[in-house]
Every structure is written in structure tokens, then in C-alpha cells.
Amino acid sequence: MRWQMLTRNILNRTHPNAAPGKGQFPPGTIAVRQLGKTFSVAAPGQQSVREVLQGVVFGGRKASRQVTALREMTFTVAAGDALGVVGRNGSGKSTLLKLLAGTMYPDSGTLTVGGRVSALIDLAAGFHPEFSGRENIFLSGTILGARRADMQQRFDRIVAFAELHEFIDVPVKYYSTGMFARLGFAVASSVESDVLLIDEVLAVGDGRFQTKCLKKLEELREQGTTLLFVSHNLELVRSLCSEVLWLEKGTARVLGPSDEVLDRYRSHLHNDVPKQTQGHSIGLVTGD
Prior knowledge:
Layout: H1 2-7, E1 30-42, H2 49-58, E2 64-77, E3 82-86, H3 93-101, E4 108-113, E5 117-120, H4 133-143, H5 148-162, H6 177-190, E6 195-199, H7 207-222, E7 226-230, H8 234-240, E8 243-248, E9 251-257, H9 258-269, E10 283-284
Helix pairs in contact: 4-5, 4-6, 5-6
């Protein structure tokens, strides 16, 4: 089959930054210390055709500027906890998840993830547009580290959860965004993992599908899976997560109980930032 040609060189693997050896770092635990990530962005302004050709022939480069996506970020997540991550667009949420997923590497600091990581960050990630939903279930499962035999056992449950019985043999390039979300979530949540990373995927589903996904996430949490959930939907975060990390301009501004952090963040969004008081149960996150 076509999916086998793509996955024959993919081996079962844990996170690239997972701690080696058993017992050294509990499965499901996340430790981030002084984490930093910077990107080079092309400087504003247009190049002439001559400048473009000179760059191609002589190897010249257009001037660029450095943009800091994450700066000295430090936090830990205990195994089995559910951590919500909130912040405005551009605050560093997606960059953080990609670093934790191992699809991107930090420029400074360290991060350690115990055990196997499953991530649902990009709806199209792990899917080949020309392949059917059926073929992509096996492809995505293999990329996530599952064996074909295991995916075969889970296949009917995945299709039922995604509610794609009539379309499972249709190439996914014809799927709507909602169908992509249902299939992606169904596959990612079916693979046994110690840590599950989720980035805004529930935002594309309807209310009924969101409720269904939340119930599944609660089941995974009860089974001991650690959840890291990024969303702009504060009520979804509140219902699922016990703690929340508030990011702002690439820094970890506040980490604390979900109700308190979300209330404070909501006030901030309405330009009504409460003053800090001594002894408050929410603390600023520092790099110490």
C-alpha cells in the first residue's frame, strides 16, 4: 500500500528530548528551564530584480532581523496534570508546543519530556492529501509511534469517533476543516502516549464535537495522560485544566490555578489589569 512506502523507515520513538533510562524521569512529566527560541525574519522592504539575481548568483542575503518567540521560559508539569496555555496571538504558544513535540529545537535552555508524546498541533500534519482517510489513519498512527497491528485494532473506534464512515475511503484533500479536525483528534487520542499536546484544534468543531472531545480528554487524564492544551476558548480551558500558564510576548507571565489565572487574564484583555498584592496565590514565573 502507498502508506507503507512513506512509513517503512519510521520507527517507534519517544520524544527526542526524553530522559534516557527508566526511572530517571517519570513518564508524563515535563520540565522546561530557561527555554528560548529566536527566528530570523526578512527585513521589511522590497528587493529589485537585480538584487534578487545578485543574491542567487553571488550568494548575497537580504538583511534580516531577529524575533524572539520565547524568552527564558521555566515551568514544570507533573505526570497526569492538565495544563492550559493562554495568551494573545504571537505570544509564543504554538512555538512552545512545537518545541515540546520535538518538531522544532530551542536556541537556549533545556526541556525534558518523560515518555512518548502525541501531538495534535497542525490539522494537516501526518496526513497525505492524496490518501484516503483509511490510509491516513495508518500513516498518522505510524508517525505517532503506533504499530500497524495496533492501529488495525483501533480502526473501527477511530472511524466511529470521527463520524466519517461514509467518507473514510475518500482522499482527505476533499475533507472540510471540521472533518480534518475530527479525524486528526480521533487518531491522536487513540494512540497510547504519556503526553498529549493540543493546539486550538477544538476551535473548528461544533459544540457537540467539542463536548465529545472534552469527554475523551477527561478520560485520558483519568488514565494518567498528561495534557497540554492551548486555546483561546477560556471556558474550554477552565473546564479541562487544573492549572494555566499565561504567555505574553514570549515570556511566561503567570502560572497558577486555572480559575484565578483565567479571571486575571480576562481582566487583562479588557484593559483592567489588577495590581499584584503580596502573598497572592498566583506567582510570577521567573527563570530562577
